Amino acid sequence: MARLKTRVPILAVQKGLVALLTQGQSTKIYDDVVPKAKLPYISIGAINVKPNGSKDSAIYDVSVQLHLWSDYQGKFEINSMMNDVATVLSYAPIDISADGFSIISQETDFFEVFSEEVHGYHGVITVVITIQDMEV
Length: 136
Description:
This protein is an alpha+beta fold. The chain has 2 helices and 5 strands; from the N terminus they run αβββαββ. It has a 5-stranded mixed β-sheet, covered by helices on one side.
């Protein structure tokens, strides 16, 4: 019996997510935050992938943490940023087709906002995505 080719979809998801958020909202997004990055910004946190396919298909459950950072002393800016990101993610699917993957489902799973020790706020959005490898 032939085995399915296994590809790790992390890079495809990250590229598609950065492209979608760059196009759909105005806050700068970083893969690697530069030392003198100006707040506010979004950074990509943990990306977890779990295979969930069968012997005939390569399907993956993916979760991505987006970290939102603001130095504004109130919660208005961070909450506005979170709303913008959630709106973009609920309106348009992440496009990962150039890498040979397809989105089956995509939703925001978790939102959290908390104050930083010195000043400003930090928000976390967890995005849950089910994808299929179309090159299998």
